[in-house]
Amino acid sequence: MKIKHIFFILLTFTLFSINLILSRGSIAIAQVNSQIPERRLGVQKPIQTESRVALVIGNSNYDESPLPNPVNDAKDMTEALRSLAFEVIYKENLPQNDMKRAIREFGNKIKNGGVGLFYYAGHGIQVNGKNYLIPIDATITKEEEVEYESVDVGFVLAQMENAKNRMNIVILDACRNNPFARSFRSINRGLASIDAPSGTLIAYATAPGSVASDGAARNGLYTEELLRSIRMQGLRIEEVFKRVRVAVRDRTQGKQIPWESSSLVGDFTFSGTITGGLTKSDSKTIPEPDSIDRALQAATRGKAILHSVQNAMGGEALRQIKSFKAKYKSKVYTAQGEIPMDIEITVKYPNKILVKYIMPSATVIDGYDGKDGWSSNSASQQVQDLTGSRLDGVRRLILGDLIFQLTHFDDVGFKTQFLEETTIEGKKVYVILLMIQEGVFSMKWKLYVDAETNLIIRISVKSASGLSSDFWDTEELISDYRRVSGIRTPFRSVMKQNGKVSVESTRLELSINPPISDSVFAKPKEEEPKNRPTLKRRDSDGTKPPTL
Fold first, then answer.
1. Which of 69, 390, 400, 425 is deepest in the core (most CB within 10 A)?
2. Which H or E element spans position 115?
Protein backbone atom coordinates (compact mmCIF):
# COMPACT_ATOMS: atom_id res chain seq x y z
CA MET A 1 0.00 0.00 0.00
CA LYS A 2 1.31 3.46 -0.86
CA ILE A 3 2.63 5.65 1.89
CA LYS A 4 0.08 8.34 1.02
CA HIS A 5 -2.79 5.91 1.53
CA ILE A 6 -1.42 4.86 4.91
CA PHE A 7 -1.17 8.50 5.92
CA PHE A 8 -4.83 9.03 5.05
CA ILE A 9 -5.73 5.96 7.11
CA LEU A 10 -3.70 7.28 10.01
CA LEU A 11 -5.50 10.61 9.80
CA THR A 12 -8.83 8.81 9.96
CA PHE A 13 -7.98 7.50 13.39
CA THR A 14 -7.21 10.90 14.77
CA LEU A 15 -10.92 10.77 15.54
CA PHE A 16 -10.55 8.98 18.83
CA SER A 17 -7.41 10.92 19.72
CA ILE A 18 -9.21 14.20 19.02
CA ASN A 19 -12.00 13.27 21.40
CA LEU A 20 -9.55 12.21 24.08
CA ILE A 21 -7.14 15.03 23.45
CA LEU A 22 -9.75 17.82 23.32
CA SER A 23 -9.88 18.00 27.12
CA ARG A 24 -6.75 16.28 28.36
CA GLY A 25 -5.41 19.79 28.92
CA SER A 26 -3.83 19.70 32.36
CA ILE A 27 -2.27 16.22 31.92
CA ALA A 28 -0.75 16.43 28.46
CA ILE A 29 -0.03 20.14 28.22
CA ALA A 30 2.02 20.28 31.41
CA GLN A 31 4.35 17.66 29.94
CA VAL A 32 4.27 18.62 26.27
CA ASN A 33 4.43 22.37 26.82
CA SER A 34 7.73 22.04 28.68
CA GLN A 35 9.25 20.94 25.36
CA ILE A 36 8.05 24.04 23.47
CA PRO A 37 10.69 26.74 22.96
CA GLU A 38 9.76 30.12 24.40
CA ARG A 39 9.57 31.66 20.94
CA ARG A 40 6.58 29.40 20.15
CA LEU A 41 4.73 30.70 23.16
CA GLY A 42 4.52 34.05 21.43
CA VAL A 43 6.37 35.67 24.35
CA GLN A 44 8.71 38.52 23.55
CA LYS A 45 10.57 39.66 26.63
CA PRO A 46 10.33 43.43 26.87
CA ILE A 47 13.42 45.58 26.66
CA GLN A 48 14.21 46.45 30.26
CA THR A 49 13.69 50.22 30.45
CA GLU A 50 12.27 50.27 34.00
CA SER A 51 12.07 47.88 36.91
CA ARG A 52 9.21 45.41 37.17
CA VAL A 53 8.50 43.89 40.57
CA ALA A 54 5.66 41.51 41.47
CA LEU A 55 4.41 39.91 44.66
CA VAL A 56 2.46 36.72 43.94
CA ILE A 57 0.55 34.93 46.73
CA GLY A 58 -1.53 31.77 46.48
CA ASN A 59 -3.46 30.49 49.50
CA SER A 60 -5.06 27.04 49.23
CA ASN A 61 -4.60 25.14 52.50
CA TYR A 62 -7.45 26.58 54.55
CA ASP A 63 -8.86 24.59 57.46
CA GLU A 64 -12.24 26.03 56.53
CA SER A 65 -13.09 25.54 52.82
CA PRO A 66 -9.69 24.65 51.25
CA LEU A 67 -9.27 25.62 47.59
CA PRO A 68 -7.63 23.43 44.89
CA ASN A 69 -6.41 26.09 42.45
CA PRO A 70 -4.78 29.14 44.09
CA VAL A 71 -1.30 27.67 44.63
CA ASN A 72 -1.29 26.37 41.05
CA ASP A 73 -2.49 29.77 39.88
CA ALA A 74 0.27 31.52 41.79
CA LYS A 75 2.99 29.19 40.51
CA ASP A 76 1.91 29.56 36.89
CA MET A 77 1.56 33.34 37.23
CA THR A 78 5.06 33.51 38.71
CA GLU A 79 6.50 31.58 35.78
CA ALA A 80 4.68 33.80 33.27
CA LEU A 81 5.72 37.07 34.94
CA ARG A 82 9.35 36.01 35.20
CA SER A 83 9.34 35.27 31.47
CA LEU A 84 8.10 38.85 31.03
CA ALA A 85 11.06 40.40 32.90
CA PHE A 86 9.37 40.76 36.31
CA GLU A 87 11.32 40.21 39.49
CA VAL A 88 8.83 38.02 41.39
CA ILE A 89 8.46 37.46 45.12
CA TYR A 90 6.55 34.18 45.26
CA LYS A 91 4.67 33.06 48.38
CA GLU A 92 2.16 30.30 49.07
CA ASN A 93 -0.10 29.28 51.96
CA LEU A 94 0.78 32.20 54.23
CA PRO A 95 -0.52 33.01 57.70
CA GLN A 96 -1.47 36.61 58.45
CA ASN A 97 1.86 37.87 59.79
CA ASP A 98 3.79 36.41 56.86
CA MET A 99 1.35 37.95 54.36
CA LYS A 100 1.86 41.40 55.88
CA ARG A 101 5.65 40.89 56.00
CA ALA A 102 5.70 39.94 52.29
CA ILE A 103 3.58 42.98 51.39
CA ARG A 104 5.96 45.30 53.27
CA GLU A 105 8.96 43.71 51.49
CA PHE A 106 7.20 44.27 48.17
CA GLY A 107 6.44 47.90 49.08
CA ASN A 108 10.11 48.57 49.80
CA LYS A 109 11.22 47.04 46.49
CA ILE A 110 8.93 49.17 44.34
CA LYS A 111 10.23 52.39 45.90
CA ASN A 112 12.92 52.25 43.23
CA GLY A 113 10.26 53.20 40.69
CA GLY A 114 8.90 51.36 37.68
CA VAL A 115 5.94 49.01 37.74
CA GLY A 116 4.62 47.10 40.73
CA LEU A 117 2.21 44.15 40.44
CA PHE A 118 0.37 42.42 43.28
CA TYR A 119 -1.39 39.12 42.47
CA TYR A 120 -3.46 37.20 45.00
CA ALA A 121 -5.39 33.94 44.60
CA GLY A 122 -7.34 32.56 47.54
CA HIS A 123 -10.29 33.43 49.73
CA GLY A 124 -11.34 37.07 49.95
CA ILE A 125 -14.40 38.69 51.50
CA GLN A 126 -15.97 42.11 51.86
CA VAL A 127 -17.22 43.65 55.08
CA ASN A 128 -18.70 47.15 55.30
CA GLY A 129 -17.41 48.06 51.85
CA LYS A 130 -13.82 46.94 52.53
CA ASN A 131 -12.08 43.96 50.94
CA TYR A 132 -10.04 41.51 52.98
CA LEU A 133 -7.65 38.73 51.89
CA ILE A 134 -7.89 35.64 54.08
CA PRO A 135 -4.67 34.04 55.45
CA ILE A 136 -4.66 30.26 55.91
CA ASP A 137 -4.56 30.61 59.72
CA ALA A 138 -7.62 32.89 59.99
CA THR A 139 -10.08 31.97 62.73
CA ILE A 140 -13.23 33.96 62.12
CA THR A 141 -16.47 33.30 63.96
CA LYS A 142 -18.17 36.67 63.37
CA GLU A 143 -17.85 39.72 61.14
CA GLU A 144 -16.15 41.88 63.74
CA GLU A 145 -13.13 39.55 63.72
CA VAL A 146 -12.40 39.86 59.99
CA GLU A 147 -10.42 43.08 60.38
CA TYR A 148 -8.08 41.46 62.90
CA GLU A 149 -7.72 37.99 61.34
CA SER A 150 -7.18 38.95 57.68
CA VAL A 151 -5.30 41.45 55.49
CA ASP A 152 -7.05 44.58 54.24
CA VAL A 153 -6.52 45.24 50.50
CA GLY A 154 -6.09 48.85 51.61
CA PHE A 155 -2.82 47.76 53.25
CA VAL A 156 -1.50 46.73 49.81
CA LEU A 157 -2.65 49.97 48.20
CA ALA A 158 -1.04 52.00 50.99
CA GLN A 159 2.33 50.35 50.32
CA MET A 160 1.99 51.16 46.64
CA GLU A 161 0.97 54.76 47.26
CA ASN A 162 3.87 55.25 49.64
CA ALA A 163 6.33 53.89 47.04
CA LYS A 164 5.38 56.65 44.56
CA ASN A 165 6.39 54.49 41.60
CA ARG A 166 5.09 55.07 38.06
CA MET A 167 2.40 52.38 37.85
CA ASN A 168 0.79 49.69 39.99
CA ILE A 169 -1.37 46.70 39.09
CA VAL A 170 -3.49 44.76 41.61
CA ILE A 171 -5.02 41.44 40.47
CA LEU A 172 -7.47 39.77 42.85
CA ASP A 173 -8.60 36.25 41.95
CA ALA A 174 -10.34 36.14 45.31
CA CYS A 175 -14.02 36.60 44.59
CA ARG A 176 -15.07 33.15 45.79
CA ASN A 177 -17.82 32.18 48.20
CA ASN A 178 -17.37 33.52 51.73
CA PRO A 179 -16.29 30.47 53.79
CA PHE A 180 -17.55 32.12 56.98
CA ALA A 181 -20.90 33.32 55.61
CA ARG A 182 -23.01 31.26 58.00
CA SER A 183 -21.68 33.24 60.98
CA PHE A 184 -22.06 36.66 59.35
CA ARG A 185 -25.01 38.98 59.76
CA SER A 186 -24.70 40.40 56.22
CA ILE A 187 -24.93 38.32 53.07
CA ASN A 188 -22.54 40.28 50.84
CA ARG A 189 -21.02 38.13 48.09
CA GLY A 190 -17.67 38.48 46.36
CA LEU A 191 -15.62 41.63 46.78
CA ALA A 192 -16.63 45.29 46.95
CA SER A 193 -15.72 47.80 44.26
CA ILE A 194 -13.04 50.23 45.40
CA ASP A 195 -11.64 53.19 43.52
CA ALA A 196 -8.13 52.75 42.17
CA PRO A 197 -5.64 55.39 43.30
CA SER A 198 -3.95 57.44 40.58
CA GLY A 199 -1.61 55.35 38.44
CA THR A 200 -3.19 52.07 39.58
CA LEU A 201 -5.32 49.38 37.97
CA ILE A 202 -7.29 46.97 40.17
CA ALA A 203 -8.56 43.84 38.42
CA TYR A 204 -11.18 41.52 39.89
CA ALA A 205 -11.95 37.96 38.77
CA THR A 206 -15.63 38.93 38.55
CA ALA A 207 -17.93 41.92 38.96
CA PRO A 208 -18.37 43.51 42.42
CA GLY A 209 -20.75 41.51 44.58
CA SER A 210 -20.45 38.40 42.38
CA VAL A 211 -18.68 35.08 42.90
CA ALA A 212 -15.97 33.63 40.63
CA SER A 213 -15.47 30.04 39.50
CA ASP A 214 -12.56 28.22 41.13
CA GLY A 215 -12.27 25.96 38.06
CA ALA A 216 -12.21 22.18 37.66
CA ALA A 217 -8.78 22.02 35.99
CA ARG A 218 -5.33 23.14 37.16
CA ASN A 219 -6.15 26.84 37.20
CA GLY A 220 -9.11 28.98 38.15
CA LEU A 221 -11.00 30.15 35.10
CA TYR A 222 -9.98 33.82 35.44
CA THR A 223 -6.29 33.12 35.92
CA GLU A 224 -6.32 30.56 33.11
CA GLU A 225 -7.49 33.21 30.65
CA LEU A 226 -5.20 35.87 32.12
CA LEU A 227 -2.15 33.64 31.63
CA ARG A 228 -3.01 33.39 27.95
CA SER A 229 -3.56 37.09 27.41
CA ILE A 230 -0.51 38.52 29.18
CA ARG A 231 1.77 36.51 26.88
CA MET A 232 0.32 38.07 23.74
CA GLN A 233 2.73 40.50 22.15
CA GLY A 234 1.97 44.17 21.74
CA LEU A 235 -1.26 44.41 23.77
CA ARG A 236 -1.78 47.36 26.05
CA ILE A 237 -2.79 46.41 29.54
CA GLU A 238 -6.38 47.58 28.96
CA GLU A 239 -6.69 45.26 25.95
CA VAL A 240 -5.26 42.34 27.93
CA PHE A 241 -7.98 42.58 30.56
CA LYS A 242 -10.65 43.21 27.94
CA ARG A 243 -9.74 39.93 26.25
CA VAL A 244 -9.87 38.14 29.59
CA ARG A 245 -13.29 39.61 30.34
CA VAL A 246 -14.76 38.52 27.00
CA ALA A 247 -13.31 35.01 27.26
CA VAL A 248 -14.50 34.41 30.83
CA ARG A 249 -17.92 35.87 30.09
CA ASP A 250 -18.38 33.61 27.08
CA ARG A 251 -17.12 30.48 28.84
CA THR A 252 -19.52 31.01 31.74
CA GLN A 253 -22.41 32.14 29.53
CA GLY A 254 -22.43 35.52 31.26
CA LYS A 255 -22.40 34.20 34.85
CA GLN A 256 -18.92 35.57 35.55
CA ILE A 257 -17.73 38.91 34.16
CA PRO A 258 -14.28 40.15 35.26
CA TRP A 259 -14.05 43.77 36.31
CA GLU A 260 -11.40 46.49 36.50
CA SER A 261 -11.12 49.84 38.23
CA SER A 262 -8.42 51.94 36.61
CA SER A 263 -6.76 55.30 37.11
CA LEU A 264 -3.79 54.60 34.84
CA VAL A 265 -2.22 57.63 33.20
CA GLY A 266 0.52 55.87 31.21
CA ASP A 267 0.89 53.02 28.74
CA PHE A 268 2.04 49.51 29.60
CA THR A 269 2.39 46.16 27.84
CA PHE A 270 3.28 42.87 29.47
CA SER A 271 4.94 41.59 26.27
CA GLY A 272 6.36 44.22 23.91
CA THR A 273 8.03 47.59 24.21
CA ILE A 274 6.70 51.13 24.48
CA THR A 275 7.63 53.62 21.78
CA GLY A 276 5.83 56.97 21.78
CA GLY A 277 2.70 55.56 23.39
CA LEU A 278 2.49 52.64 20.95
CA THR A 279 4.27 49.34 21.18
CA LYS A 280 6.49 48.41 18.26
CA SER A 281 4.11 45.58 17.58
CA ASP A 282 1.10 47.93 17.80
CA SER A 283 2.52 50.40 15.32
CA LYS A 284 2.88 47.73 12.66
CA THR A 285 0.18 45.16 13.17
CA ILE A 286 -2.80 46.40 15.20
CA PRO A 287 -5.79 46.92 12.89
CA GLU A 288 -8.66 49.34 13.32
CA PRO A 289 -10.70 49.03 16.57
CA ASP A 290 -13.78 47.63 14.81
CA SER A 291 -11.80 44.81 13.23
CA ILE A 292 -10.17 44.06 16.60
CA ASP A 293 -13.60 43.68 18.19
CA ARG A 294 -14.91 41.47 15.39
CA ALA A 295 -11.85 39.22 15.47
CA LEU A 296 -11.97 39.06 19.27
CA GLN A 297 -15.64 38.14 19.27
CA ALA A 298 -15.07 35.39 16.67
CA ALA A 299 -12.10 33.98 18.59
CA THR A 300 -13.76 34.04 22.00
CA ARG A 301 -17.01 32.54 20.73
CA GLY A 302 -15.03 29.75 19.07
CA LYS A 303 -13.26 29.03 22.35
CA ALA A 304 -16.50 29.01 24.31
CA ILE A 305 -18.03 26.45 21.94
CA LEU A 306 -14.97 24.20 22.16
CA HIS A 307 -15.14 24.27 25.95
CA SER A 308 -18.76 23.16 25.65
CA VAL A 309 -17.54 20.27 23.49
CA GLN A 310 -15.07 19.29 26.21
CA ASN A 311 -17.80 19.20 28.84
CA ALA A 312 -20.19 17.26 26.59
CA MET A 313 -17.57 14.59 25.97
CA GLY A 314 -16.81 14.00 29.61
CA GLY A 315 -15.10 17.01 31.15
CA GLU A 316 -12.90 15.88 34.03
CA ALA A 317 -13.06 12.22 32.97
CA LEU A 318 -11.25 13.12 29.75
CA ARG A 319 -8.52 14.93 31.65
CA GLN A 320 -7.82 11.78 33.64
CA ILE A 321 -6.92 9.68 30.59
CA LYS A 322 -3.28 8.58 30.56
CA SER A 323 -3.47 5.73 28.05
CA PHE A 324 -5.90 3.81 25.86
CA LYS A 325 -6.17 0.89 23.47
CA ALA A 326 -8.69 0.71 20.64
CA LYS A 327 -9.56 -1.72 17.83
CA TYR A 328 -11.31 -0.79 14.59
CA LYS A 329 -12.73 -2.68 11.64
CA SER A 330 -12.34 -0.66 8.49
CA LYS A 331 -12.72 -0.63 4.74
CA VAL A 332 -10.24 1.36 2.70
CA TYR A 333 -11.24 2.37 -0.82
CA THR A 334 -8.39 2.83 -3.28
CA ALA A 335 -8.03 2.97 -7.07
CA GLN A 336 -7.18 -0.73 -6.89
CA GLY A 337 -10.40 -1.55 -5.07
CA GLU A 338 -11.70 -2.15 -1.56
CA ILE A 339 -9.25 -3.33 1.10
CA PRO A 340 -10.56 -4.73 4.42
CA MET A 341 -8.41 -3.69 7.33
CA ASP A 342 -8.33 -4.12 11.10
CA ILE A 343 -6.57 -1.37 12.98
CA GLU A 344 -5.26 -1.47 16.53
CA ILE A 345 -4.08 1.69 18.29
CA THR A 346 -2.12 1.87 21.54
CA VAL A 347 -1.45 5.30 23.06
CA LYS A 348 0.41 6.37 26.16
CA TYR A 349 0.36 10.08 26.89
CA PRO A 350 2.00 12.40 26.38
CA ASN A 351 4.01 11.16 23.40
CA LYS A 352 3.93 7.44 22.61
CA ILE A 353 1.84 5.62 20.01
CA LEU A 354 1.67 2.31 18.16
CA VAL A 355 -0.67 1.82 15.18
CA LYS A 356 -1.09 -1.65 13.65
CA TYR A 357 -2.74 -2.01 10.21
CA ILE A 358 -3.79 -5.62 9.60
CA MET A 359 -4.53 -6.28 5.91
CA PRO A 360 -5.00 -9.51 3.94
CA SER A 361 -1.62 -9.11 2.27
CA ALA A 362 0.46 -7.79 5.15
CA THR A 363 0.55 -6.21 8.60
CA VAL A 364 2.13 -2.76 8.86
CA ILE A 365 3.04 -1.31 12.26
CA ASP A 366 3.94 2.34 12.81
CA GLY A 367 5.45 3.31 16.15
CA TYR A 368 6.61 6.48 17.87
CA ASP A 369 8.41 6.30 21.23
CA GLY A 370 8.41 10.02 21.97
CA LYS A 371 11.61 10.65 20.05
CA ASP A 372 11.95 8.35 17.04
CA GLY A 373 9.45 6.78 14.67
CA TRP A 374 9.66 3.42 12.97
CA SER A 375 7.63 1.13 10.72
CA SER A 376 7.63 -2.61 10.16
CA ASN A 377 6.11 -4.60 7.31
CA SER A 378 5.38 -8.32 7.59
CA ALA A 379 5.51 -8.75 3.83
CA SER A 380 9.05 -7.45 3.44
CA GLN A 381 10.07 -8.46 6.98
CA GLN A 382 11.83 -5.13 7.31
CA VAL A 383 11.92 -2.44 9.98
CA GLN A 384 12.69 1.07 8.83
CA ASP A 385 12.92 4.50 10.42
CA LEU A 386 10.05 6.90 9.69
CA THR A 387 11.00 10.23 8.17
CA GLY A 388 9.38 13.22 6.54
CA SER A 389 5.62 13.53 6.30
CA ARG A 390 4.97 9.99 7.49
CA LEU A 391 6.88 10.54 10.73
CA ASP A 392 5.19 13.91 11.08
CA GLY A 393 1.79 12.26 10.71
CA VAL A 394 2.45 9.71 13.46
CA ARG A 395 3.99 12.30 15.78
CA ARG A 396 1.14 14.75 15.28
CA LEU A 397 -1.43 12.08 15.97
CA ILE A 398 -0.19 11.54 19.52
CA LEU A 399 0.85 15.10 20.35
CA GLY A 400 -2.49 16.18 18.92
CA ASP A 401 -2.49 19.76 17.71
CA LEU A 402 -5.97 20.11 19.24
CA ILE A 403 -4.45 19.81 22.70
CA PHE A 404 -2.65 23.07 22.06
CA GLN A 405 -5.58 24.63 20.25
CA LEU A 406 -7.94 24.11 23.16
CA THR A 407 -5.62 25.03 26.00
CA HIS A 408 -3.08 27.41 24.41
CA PHE A 409 -4.99 29.10 21.61
CA ASP A 410 -2.98 32.29 21.68
CA ASP A 411 0.42 31.41 23.05
CA VAL A 412 1.62 28.67 20.69
CA GLY A 413 0.56 30.29 17.46
CA PHE A 414 -2.85 28.72 16.87
CA LYS A 415 -5.66 30.87 15.54
CA THR A 416 -9.28 30.20 16.39
CA GLN A 417 -12.30 31.63 14.68
CA PHE A 418 -16.04 31.14 14.86
CA LEU A 419 -17.13 31.01 11.21
CA GLU A 420 -20.87 30.63 11.07
CA GLU A 421 -24.05 29.10 12.36
CA THR A 422 -25.62 26.82 9.75
CA THR A 423 -28.03 23.92 9.33
CA ILE A 424 -27.06 20.35 8.43
CA GLU A 425 -29.79 17.74 8.02
CA GLY A 426 -32.19 19.91 10.01
CA LYS A 427 -29.76 20.45 12.89
CA LYS A 428 -28.33 23.79 13.97
CA VAL A 429 -24.56 23.52 13.69
CA TYR A 430 -21.68 25.80 14.73
CA VAL A 431 -18.67 25.90 12.43
CA ILE A 432 -15.28 26.70 13.99
CA LEU A 433 -12.00 27.20 12.14
CA LEU A 434 -8.70 26.24 13.76
CA MET A 435 -5.41 27.09 12.06
CA ILE A 436 -1.69 26.58 12.63
CA GLN A 437 1.42 27.47 10.64
CA GLU A 438 4.58 25.76 11.90
CA GLY A 439 7.62 26.11 9.68
CA VAL A 440 6.86 24.51 6.32
CA PHE A 441 3.77 22.79 7.67
CA SER A 442 0.34 24.37 7.81
CA MET A 443 -2.97 22.85 8.80
CA LYS A 444 -6.58 23.95 9.06
CA TRP A 445 -9.50 22.25 10.75
CA LYS A 446 -13.18 23.01 10.37
CA LEU A 447 -15.11 21.53 13.27
CA TYR A 448 -18.88 21.19 12.89
CA VAL A 449 -20.52 21.14 16.33
CA ASP A 450 -24.13 20.10 16.93
CA ALA A 451 -25.62 23.10 18.78
CA GLU A 452 -27.99 20.89 20.77
CA THR A 453 -25.61 18.13 21.92
CA ASN A 454 -22.31 20.06 21.74
CA LEU A 455 -20.76 17.07 19.99
CA ILE A 456 -18.60 17.20 16.87
CA ILE A 457 -20.38 15.65 13.89
CA ARG A 458 -17.94 16.53 11.11
CA ILE A 459 -14.28 17.46 10.75
CA SER A 460 -12.77 18.91 7.60
CA VAL A 461 -8.97 18.98 7.33
CA LYS A 462 -6.73 20.83 4.93
CA SER A 463 -2.97 20.45 5.07
CA ALA A 464 -0.02 21.64 3.05
CA SER A 465 3.63 20.88 3.68
CA GLY A 466 6.80 22.03 2.04
CA LEU A 467 8.13 18.52 2.60
CA SER A 468 6.22 17.29 -0.43
CA SER A 469 4.14 18.62 -3.28
CA ASP A 470 1.02 16.91 -1.97
CA PHE A 471 -1.93 19.09 -1.02
CA TRP A 472 -4.92 17.15 0.20
CA ASP A 473 -8.39 17.67 1.60
CA THR A 474 -10.33 15.26 3.78
CA GLU A 475 -13.68 15.28 5.50
CA GLU A 476 -14.67 13.00 8.36
CA LEU A 477 -18.31 12.30 9.26
CA ILE A 478 -18.76 11.18 12.87
CA SER A 479 -21.70 9.35 14.43
CA ASP A 480 -22.88 6.84 17.04
CA TYR A 481 -21.50 8.42 20.22
CA ARG A 482 -21.36 6.00 23.13
CA ARG A 483 -20.30 6.41 26.75
CA VAL A 484 -17.25 4.46 27.91
CA SER A 485 -15.83 5.03 31.41
CA GLY A 486 -17.67 8.32 31.66
CA ILE A 487 -16.49 9.53 28.24
CA ARG A 488 -18.67 10.01 25.18
CA THR A 489 -16.82 8.97 22.04
CA PRO A 490 -17.95 8.18 18.47
CA PHE A 491 -17.95 4.56 17.31
CA ARG A 492 -18.47 5.16 13.59
CA SER A 493 -16.82 7.44 11.08
CA VAL A 494 -16.62 7.88 7.33
CA MET A 495 -13.71 9.71 5.76
CA LYS A 496 -13.99 11.35 2.39
CA GLN A 497 -11.05 12.41 0.28
CA ASN A 498 -11.84 14.99 -2.41
CA GLY A 499 -15.53 14.19 -2.06
CA LYS A 500 -15.17 10.40 -2.36
CA VAL A 501 -15.40 7.91 0.49
CA SER A 502 -11.88 6.69 1.28
CA VAL A 503 -12.29 4.95 4.65
CA GLU A 504 -15.21 3.59 6.68
CA SER A 505 -14.51 2.61 10.28
CA THR A 506 -16.31 1.06 13.24
CA ARG A 507 -14.68 0.83 16.64
CA LEU A 508 -14.96 -2.64 18.14
CA GLU A 509 -13.12 -2.29 21.45
CA LEU A 510 -11.96 0.51 23.71
CA SER A 511 -9.92 0.24 26.90
CA ILE A 512 -9.14 3.38 28.89
CA ASN A 513 -6.09 3.70 31.16
CA PRO A 514 -4.77 0.14 30.77
CA PRO A 515 -1.22 -0.39 32.08
CA ILE A 516 1.18 -0.07 29.14
CA SER A 517 4.95 -0.55 29.28
CA ASP A 518 7.20 1.88 27.40
CA SER A 519 8.86 -1.11 25.75
CA VAL A 520 5.71 -1.58 23.64
CA PHE A 521 6.70 1.49 21.60
CA ALA A 522 10.39 0.65 21.18
CA LYS A 523 11.71 -0.09 17.70
CA PRO A 524 11.91 -3.88 17.28
CA LYS A 525 15.06 -5.59 16.11
CA GLU A 526 14.93 -6.62 12.49
CA GLU A 527 14.52 -10.38 12.19
CA GLU A 528 16.22 -12.57 9.64
CA PRO A 529 13.77 -13.37 6.83
CA LYS A 530 12.31 -16.84 7.15
CA ASN A 531 12.85 -19.50 4.46
CA ARG A 532 15.80 -17.65 2.98
CA PRO A 533 17.32 -19.93 0.26
CA THR A 534 20.86 -21.13 1.05
CA LEU A 535 23.45 -21.28 -1.67
CA LYS A 536 25.37 -24.55 -1.85
CA ARG A 537 28.90 -24.13 -3.15
CA ARG A 538 30.57 -26.91 -5.12
CA ASP A 539 34.17 -27.27 -6.16
CA SER A 540 35.15 -27.11 -9.77
CA ASP A 541 34.98 -30.88 -10.06
CA GLY A 542 31.38 -30.82 -8.91
CA THR A 543 32.00 -32.29 -5.48
CA LYS A 544 30.78 -30.69 -2.23
CA PRO A 545 33.42 -28.89 -0.18
CA PRO A 546 34.52 -30.73 2.93
CA THR A 547 32.65 -30.06 6.14
CA LEU A 548 34.74 -28.09 8.62
1. 69
2. strand 115-121
In single-letter form, the type of residue at position 2 comes to K
The whole-angstrom distance between residue 470's C-alpha and the CA centroid of its chain comes to 30
For the stretch 355-364, contacts whose Cβ atoms lie closer than 8 Å and that sit 24 or more positions apart, written own/partner, are 355/10, 355/13, 355/394, 355/397, 357/6, 357/9, 359/1, 364/1, 364/6
The Cα–Cα gap between 325 and 201 comes to 51
Q: Which domains does the chain have, with CATH numbers?
A: 3-22+316-521 (2.50.20.10), 45-271 (3.40.50.1460)
Vertex 73 angle, CA 69 and 77, to 5°? 180
Q: Report phi then psi at 105, rounded to 5.
A: -60, -45
Quick check: bond before 37 cis, omega within 30?
Answer: no
**In 190-336, at which residue ranges do the beta strands (DSSP E only) sit?**
200-204, 259-262, 274-275, 278-279, 323-334
CA distance 305 to 269: 29
Q: Which is nearest to 100 in space by CA: 60, 61, 142, 132?
A: 132
Distance CA(252)–CA(468), nearest Å, equals 43
Length of the chain: 548
3-state secondary structure of 100: helix
Predicted confidence (pLDDT) per residue in 253-273, tens digit? 888 888 888 888 888 999 865
